[in-house]
Structure formats: C-alpha cells, structure tokens
Write a structure and sequence with these properties.
The structure is a single chain. This protein is α/β, with parallel strands linked by helices. Helices cover 36% and strands 25% of the residues. The protein folds into two domains: 11-194 and 313-405, 3-Layer(aba) Sandwich (Aminopeptidase), CATH 3.40.630.10; 198-309, Alpha-Beta Plaits (2-Layer Sandwich), CATH 3.30.70.360. The chain contains nine helices and 16 strands. The strands form four sheets. The protein has an eight-stranded mixed sheet, with helices on both faces. The chain has a four-stranded antiparallel sheet with strand order 10-12-8-13, covered by helices on one side. Strand 1 and strand 2 form a beta hairpin. Helix 1 packs antiparallel against helix 3.
C-alpha cells in the first residue's frame, strides 16, 4: 500500500515548481508554436524529434534518440537511488488541412496538430526543465517518453515497450496528460479505473454482381446487401451488449462506386468498435463476422470481414490516480480538479498502463472563446494551459515518486 502523508509538498517545493514553470513558460509558448507550424504524420516525426532533442541537449538532459523509430527517451536521475516514474507525451499530427488564421499555422499542407500533441510535447519539455532544475529535491529518476504514432495502429506505445523503455531503470509508475477543450484553463480532470475505450477498426467488403440498375433481376445488388448488413450490425450494441458495458459500433465510410443506373460489383464499409470488456470485445468480433456473412449469403453475395485489433481500454490504477489527484488538489486547489466520466475515445497509453501502474488525466485548454473540438480543422487552445500543464505534471511526478519510494 502507498503510505499517506498530511501534505504532499512543503510550501518551498511548491513555490520552486511554480517559479521554474513561470521561468520556462514564455519559451514553451515558442516551442509549442514551432511544433504546431511544423507538424508531421505518424512514424514520420523526424524533424519533430530533432527539435525535441535539441532542447533536451540545450538543458543538459541525457536522452536517447531513434527509439522505436522517431521516439525519444530522456532520463533525469538524482545522485541517490530510488524508484522511477515515467512521463509520456505523443508526437504525431493528423492529416487535416488547418483553417486557423494564425501566424504559426501549419506549414505542412494537409497536416495539422489538431489533437494537441504539440501542447503535450511542449508541456513535457517544460516538466523536464522543472524536474532537472530540482534534481536535488528527489531520490530516484524520471523517464520522459516522447512517443511517435499515437494516431495510427498499431501505435507507438507498444513499439516503445518492445524497445525496452520500461526497463533500465525499471519504471514503477507512468503518467500521461492530454488536453481537453471542454475543461477550462487552470483545471485538470481525472478518473480512477476504466477511463477510455478499447478500439478496433472494422473493414467489410460486400461482393455481389453488378449491372444495369433497370435490370435488378440480373444482378446481386451489393448496395442493398450492405445496407441490410449495416442496419443489422447496429443490433450488436443495442441487443447483444450488456447495457452495463458501454459499447459503440459506428460506420463512417460506405462506398458504393456506381452511378444512378449502374449497380457496382462491390461495396466497402469501414467502421469502429469501442468497448470496455475484453471477453465481450471478442464476442462482438465474432458477431460482426457471423451477421455480415449470414446476411450476404442469404442474398447470394459474399462479405469479407477484416478486423484490425486496436488498443485496449485505458485503465487508471486507483492508487496511482489517488496520489495524482491529491497532488493536483494541493497544487491547484480542489475547485480546479474535476472528476471525469468514461470516454469512448481511445489511446495507446493503455499499453503502458497494462505494464505498470498508470494515470492518464486531462488538461484544461478552454476559455471564454468559441469551443473548437479535437480533430477539427479549427482546433486551437489557450496557451496559458502550458503553464498549468508543465507545473502540474511536475507536481504529480514528484509526489508519485516520493510516495512510491516510501512504500
């Protein structure tokens, strides 16, 4: 069990964290804007990695490059032995054409940091600066993981784990932070236990017999077959899933490449399955296969089903989350730490939290202006969030390391 203390921080340490955060904050704004203007897609974060490495080198922080491709692992280690806490930020951008009219808008046409990964990297760099400045204030080490390819299966987290980032020194706990537009600047949000859903990609190819639209008796119409399959699959979440287990099965792509009077030979459907139970997840996969094949066969058509098994659900270790919440409350005040509901979005941080106790929390970036959501061409954030982001993560990291050392 983790031991509990009356106060996680002494006032002097809190003041030091805040002072260092204020010192580095103007530079973090510039770092974030540079990263925003120069986004790179998953597994192509070459210039991003070089830029991050240059900052770590400038601050004399020991690090390795080219980990699991473009990843970076930095280590801030005190002179005394102790446990190790890892801190993670993702690096990749999205294939979105930015519509924001700002001086630091994306210079890479059709690529945009529309999920806040630029802020994640800048914030973690700020945390690194703070922790490195306070290296005499803790026992043990902090491992900083700059991870490529969160947005694309199979994700960079599993590749970094395979590359050994959780060893030498062995990581005892891990912390991740992600921006949330629906949360105001100055706030963070947390949830213990299950937090974000597992995710799978569903690909269906319905093959029939195309022909003239005026002679349906000569065709096996894959458009009609696919429509029946699409409607029937909706019963998986409404009639097969346990209502106590959140489940979403959505299809965002339906391609029937014919014309008004041309029935195509095949139709392609693409969708996603999200849930929170691994046994049910496997059963749902089988149901998708059986229902799709059965309906297609009844019409004389065929259906090829391919399911890309994606990230597991994110689980926030209760003890680790409790420590993080206590640290955040003491550092920010109770009114600035909110409880979060389940989310059906997914994150490959889940692979890390399967290996070691972890906490994945949200950083508020909203203000009184128009709300722009994640993964949109107009996504933006209040850069004051970087101040909260770097300092709160440092506070959580220091608290977590102290408490784990005291076990």
């Amino acid at each position: 069990m983790y031991c509990h203390s009356v106060s996680i921080f002494n006032m002097n340490l809190q003041q030091q964290i805040k002072a260092k955060a204020n010192e580095i904050f103007p530079e973090l704004v510039g770092i974030r804007r540079h990263l925003h203007a120069n986004p790179e897609l998953s597994n192509l974060e070459f210039e991003t990695a070089r830029y991050i490495s240059s900052k770590l080198t400038e601050w004399n922080i020991n690090h390795k490059i080219n980990v699991a491709g473009t990843g970076i692992v930095a280590l801030i280690q005190s002179s005394t032995n102790g446990k190790c806490v890892a801190l993670r930020a993702d690096m990749d951008a999205l294939p979105i054409l930015e519509e924001n009219k700002v001086e630091y808008r994306s210079l890479n046409q059709g690529v945009m940091h529309a999920c806040g990964h630029d802020a994640h990297m800048a914030s973690l760099l700020g945390t690194a600066f703070i922790l490195n400045s306070l290296i005499d204030s803790f026992e043990g080490s902090f491992k900083l993981l700059f991870q490529p390819s969160e947005e694309v299966f199979p994700g960079g987290a599993i590749k970094m784990i395979e590359a050994g980032v959780l060893d030498n020194p062995r990581v005892d706990a891990i912390v991740g932070q992600h921006v949330l537009p629906q949360l105001s600047v100055g706030k963070v949000g947390m949830k213990s236990g299950q937090y974000m859903a597992s995710t799978d990609e569903i690909f269906l190819t319905v093959a029939g017999k195309g022909g003239h639209g005026a002679t349906p008796e000569l065709n096996i119409d894959p458009v009609v077959v696919a429509a029946h399959i699409l409607i029937a699959l909706q019963q998986i979440s409404s009639r097969f899933a346990n209502p106590a287990v959140p489940t979403v099965l959505s299809f965002g792509r339906f391609v029937a490449d014919g014309r008004t009077n041309i029935i195509p030979d095949k139709v392609v459907l693409e969708g996603t399955l999200r849930t929170f139970d691994e046994l049910w997840r496997r059963k749902a996969h089988n149901l998708i296969q059986d229902i799709s094949n059965g309906i297609a066969s009844s019409f004389g058509a065929t259906c090829e089903v391919r399911i890309n098994h994606g990230y597991p659900y994110v689980y926030n270790d209760e003890k680790t989350t409790d420590i993080a919440r206590e640290a955040a409350v003491e550092f920010l005040g109770s009114k600035n730490v909110e409880d979060l509901p389940l989310r059906m979005t997914a994150e490959d941080f889940s692979y890390f939290s399967q290996q070691v106790p972890g906490v994945y929390y949200r950083l508020g970036i909203g203000n009184d202006g128009p709300l722009t959501n994640l993964h949109t061409a107009t996504f933006s954030l209040d850069e004051n969030a970087l101040l909260t982001g770097c300092s709160t993560m440092a506070a959580i990291a220091l608290s977590l390391l102290e408490r784990i050392n005291a076990e």
